[in-house]
């Protein structure tokens, strides 16, 4: 039984609804997790997405900023929204779905970007990001009777080949040692498995984001792997494939992130 989960920072779901619909028609994931929806719950385009088969939609939104949503073809239960750092931002939502006898909790995260200066003494946004990551270290992948999947824009490219130039990126927010070590700690302390790197060796370049600032993003190919799919170790053997839809970066009015899909065969 094949089952697919997609994560995508859409950078405004209302503005980019046409490409969300384009993606759904093409790929038909069973669950689609969106980040940076940038709207309140009452502003979310529920009806057109429900008509496309996503009858079960939960979200954590706020006006104009952040926001995460889980769109599902299968029922979602026990939804939860964690207020990381206690500042009221809509950056996390989770829920349980079932496949056969399995109960799986899916977490959808949008980690703070952290601003431009990697120094918390002069850049509070960077300090906020580090504090957010520190709190994530308490999140466990395995709990009794429940497996887990964690997806989202984590805004950190942790490995050497998750960026176009490891050496040139070491002092750039998203790939500084304090960030990469922090995210590695989240994985190790929580017992998470990096499914993307289970499928694509760490020695190979792997990107999910290309800057709007590049005149020709595809030719320059200065990407970063900011978007992630992790799971509890028990789900690893069921991973069939990972797909990074790079061409979506060239679609009409695109996000700077592209969809990443994990397909499982339970």
From TrEMBL:
<keyword id="KW-0378">Hydrolase</keyword>
<keyword id="KW-0460">Magnesium</keyword>
<dbReference type="GO" id="GO:0008311">
    <property type="term" value="F:double-stranded DNA 3'-5' DNA exonuclease activity"/>
</dbReference>
<dbReference type="InterPro" id="IPR037493">
    <property type="entry name" value="ExoIII-like"/>
</dbReference>
<dbReference type="InterPro" id="IPR020847">
    <property type="entry name" value="AP_endonuclease_F1_BS"/>
</dbReference>
<dbReference type="InterPro" id="IPR004808">
    <property type="entry name" value="AP_endonuc_1"/>
</dbReference>
<protein>
    <submittedName>
        <fullName>Exodeoxyribonuclease III</fullName>
        <ecNumber>3.1.11.2</ecNumber>
    </submittedName>
</protein>
<dbReference type="Pfam" id="PF03372">
    <property type="entry name" value="Exo_endo_phos"/>
</dbReference>
<feature type="domain" description="Endonuclease/exonuclease/phosphatase">
    <location>
        <begin position="7"/>
        <end position="257"/>
    </location>
</feature>
<keyword id="KW-0479">Metal-binding</keyword>
<dbReference type="InterPro" id="IPR005135">
    <property type="entry name" value="Endo/exonuclease/phosphatase"/>
</dbReference>
<comment type="similarity">
    <text>Belongs to the DNA repair enzymes AP/ExoA family.</text>
</comment>
<dbReference type="InterPro" id="IPR036691">
    <property type="entry name" value="Endo/exonu/phosph_ase_sf"/>
</dbReference>
